[in-house]
Amino acid sequence: MWQLFQFPLCPFSRKVRLLLGEKSVGYELVRESPWLRRDEFIDLNPAGQTPVMADPTSGILLIDSTAICEYFEETIDKAALINGTAVNRAEIRRLVAWFDTQFYGDVVAPLMYERMEKRLVHRMTPDAKILREAMKRAIAHLDYVDFLLDHRNWIGGATLSLADLAAAAHISVADYLGGIDWKGHEQTRRWYAGLKSRPSFRPMLAERMEVIAPPKHYDKLDEF
Amino acid sequence: MWQLFQFPLCPFSRKVRLLLGEKSVGYELVRESPWLRRDEFIDLNPAGQTPVMADPTSGILLIDSTAICEYFEETIDKAALINGTAVNRAEIRRLVAWFDTQFYGDVVAPLMYERMEKRLVHRMTPDAKILREAMKRAIAHLDYVDFLLDHRNWIGGATLSLADLAAAAHISVADYLGGIDWKGHEQTRRWYAGLKSRPSFRPMLAERMEVIAPPKHYDKLDEF
């Protein structure tokens, strides 16, 4: 069985898990804390980042969330998630990159550093100014998601795609860390409530990161 | 004809140009300086980053270097660059992500900020300490490329792939900015000399970024 090296708040691992869930690929979770830079993990992935997937039976090792998602999209027919024409697929990949780079850099990375890494690793308190800035940027990003959903059923186009999973993965980590203000984002809320209720999503909502509790609404399907 | 919005030292645009060159896809260069945040460009790409490709005839707009490369890989049969089995393809994509994220973040981004953006935008002198740190990290990265080339003919496997083009794109920008110390990296030098002599690469070596001159060896095929 596949092993997935990850930690509960890794947004890139969440994206992979959502894809594996939609495609009904079985896997076992292996807890990895990349900030510890464990020698055996660096040997596996010199970049030192989660997610990594390993299949001990075949010896296959998959590294990097984009490479992992493309691999399962190519090898598992069920639930095509980078779907449609070449132009549709380019739009899905653009939006995956948007969440993996822009949303992550503007919102998720500063929240994770201030609320998680500072606490777990450096034993410091978060910088309120940086948190406020990240939350302000999150609002601008949700405005963009609202805009996309005004024109489309799903974030990447007419059907559920990897763009939705990437967006939900990053938003869910930001939401866990108290960085999302849901007021005024009706479209995005409705879309996110739909995603939260999917069988691929629900197990993740039940998991907790040590020492950090999410806000009360985090795992509720109809609260924000 | 395709238009490619880019500037001469954008490593992500260089990766796309190398791929288009290998596949013999014609395009016209449109100079874009993303740091100016031109309104018309932000309308085109809300992420505000190069490369962007537009085809005025069909109205197709492609954004993000990964999405662009995958698009042409899917639509142009000539010169498969994400090739081989699903596992080979995952390894190629891992290495593309390695150069686009790790090498870029460790080496290219600080060099570009210190040597290009500070000069062009902020009229400041570069920070020597940050430059030294980036150059030291570049050495560790070239050690890794040496290691890969000890085991393979090309960076991603047995044949030329997008991993080589991504690596060459980022290394060439770092080399232009004086950040690469070629001493002791015999394997990587030989590989890079081979890439430099390809018709897809040579036009880029002749281009210059205003106010910043590359070191003398930069566009020579046999000097380092």
Structure characterization notes:
2 copies of one chain form a homodimer. Chain A folds into 2 domains: 2-75, Glutaredoxin (3-Layer(aba) Sandwich); 86-219, Glutathione S-transferase Yfyf (Class Pi), Chain A, domain 2. Chain A is built from 8 helices and 4 strands, in the order βαβαββαααααα. In chain A, helix 1 packs parallel to helix 3, helix 4 runs antiparallel to helix 5 (128-151) and helix 4 (86-122) runs parallel beside helix 6. In chain A, strands 2-1-3-4 form a 4-stranded mixed beta sheet, covered by helices on one side. Helices cover 54% and strands 8% of the residues of chain A. By secondary structure, chain A is of the alpha+beta class. The longest helix of chain A is centred in the middle third of the chain and has 37 residues, at 86-122. Chain A binds chain B through residues 46-47, 60, 62-64, 66-68, 70-71, 74-75, 86-87, 89-91, 93-94, 97-98, 101-102, 144, and chain B through 46-47, 60, 62-64, 66-68, 70-71, 74-75, 86-87, 89-91, 93-94, 97-98, 101-102, 144.
